[in-house]
Amino acid sequence: MTDVDVLFVGYADDRVAGTVSCIRDGELVVIVDPGMVPDRSVILDPLRALGVEAADVTDVILSHHHPDHTMNVALFGNARVHDTWAIYKGDSWTDRPADGAELSPNISLKATPGHTAQDITTLVRTDSDLVALTHLWWDESSETDPLAEDEDALQAGRAQILQVASLIIPGHGAPFVPIPPHTRSGPL
């Protein structure tokens, strides 16, 4: 069974914090975007409540390289770190494109540029959902990205994710069920 838990719901207003999530799939324990938060305990305490210690984390995925999504990566010193270019562990750097990379049969990465040219989305198949952990949305209400390097690419990525995801965990907000593309009344 594959589980996805949000450890901390992020925000972007007068302060900024990224949404931090945990994926458990067999022996894999994956943290997505351990970035800026008010205190490290808001990541570590909910993780412990799941029965997981920081040393148990096997992998960390960075959606992109902004500090609000990377600041606390060092909490997980035993983990492999995945980004758009490579996998890092200790002093090992293994080049590989993220697009299409699989951490397991249930966890894969997809290149979704827009916010930055290097953005990736984590796709997770659970028993009931296909979850997209992504910065294509800041939160459920974000129609555009005011800081997007390429708004057209971002909108194209959204359209692709909306075709497959039944649950979206955005970069700075709570999980939401997407409105199917054919029922949307405005732009993607």
Describe the overall structure:
There is one protein chain. The protein has 188 residues and is an alpha+beta fold. The protein has one domain: 4-Layer Sandwich (Metallo-beta-lactamase, Chain A). The protein is 14% helix and 31% strand. The relative contact order is 0.17.
| Coarse structural class | alpha+beta
Form type: globular
Helix content: 10-25%
Model regions low in confidence, pLDDT < 50 over at least 5 residues: 182-188
CATH architecture title: 4-Layer Sandwich
Which features characterize this protein?
5-stranded mixed beta sheet, globular, Metallo-beta-lactamase, Chain A, 3 helices, 7-stranded mixed beta sheet, 188 residues, alpha+beta, 14% helix
Strand and helix map with partners:
Layout: E1 2-8, E2 11-12, E3 16-17, E4 20-25, E5 28-32, H1 41-49, E6 59-61, H2 67-70, E7 80-82, E8 86-89, E9 92-95, E10 102-104, E11 107-111, E12 120-125, E13 130-134, H3 151-164, E14 167-170
Parallel strand pairs: 5-6, 6-7, 13-14
Antiparallel strand pairs: 1-4, 2-3, 4-5, 7-8, 8-9, 10-11, 11-12, 12-13
Describe what is shown at a glance.
By secondary structure, the chain is α+β, with helices and mostly antiparallel strands. It has a single domain (2-85, 99-183), classed as Metallo-beta-lactamase, Chain A (4-Layer Sandwich). Helices cover 14% and strands 31% of the residues.
